[in-house]
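Collaborator request, handled under Task 6.
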Amino acid sequence: MRREIPLLITGIVGVVFVISYFIPHFPFNMMDGWFSDWFSIIQACAIVLGALNLLLISSQKIIRRKTDWGYSIVVMATFFLMIIAGFSGGVEFRGPDTTFTWLYNFTFMPLSSTMYAILAFFVASASYRAFRARNAEATLLLGAAFFVMIGRVPIGDLITGFMPEGARLSDLTGWIMDYPQTAGQRAIMIGIALGLVSTSLRVILGIERSHLGGDS
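Structure tokens returned to the collaborator:
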């Protein structure tokens, strides 16, 4: 029953959502709101379980002195710091002059910006390895990337400023982004949608069971 009940709930909820999309009449038009309330409850419970799991894993690394256990101390210290700051602020803990807001704006946000800035170097490194003219497709990708990058910066217009309107690098970049890039992006999105539909059907019908912790 530990597997059958979750599969039954998943199947019922999935079928109801599909039906409510095509039949917007009572009671199906009300079920979306009813299930949304349950989803909020489940999400709240999942956040609590995630926090407890984070504390458990971090404490185990500290006790057993595993690799990089010092980072676990930082994680736990900042975790409790934000909790104390939130509870000390009361109901209005997200107000403009609270300790929680100050920590979020001047600690969390700069760290997030730093992490995203570091990702730019990883993207550049991956692009260097991927954009090699090994075959015709890679050469086409390399050429398109070169024209897009040059056309997006002022030096592109500086180099081709003498050319007539419509023949400059910025115009070529716009054409690449509007037509080939958009067509490729739509094809990828269609493929993702088809994959999402097939995966959803597998979950609703009980064929896919990896989310239960067992074999699919």
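The cover message to the collaborator said: "The radius of gyration is 26 Å. Residues 28-64 form the longest helix (37 residues). Please let us know whether this matches your experimental observations."
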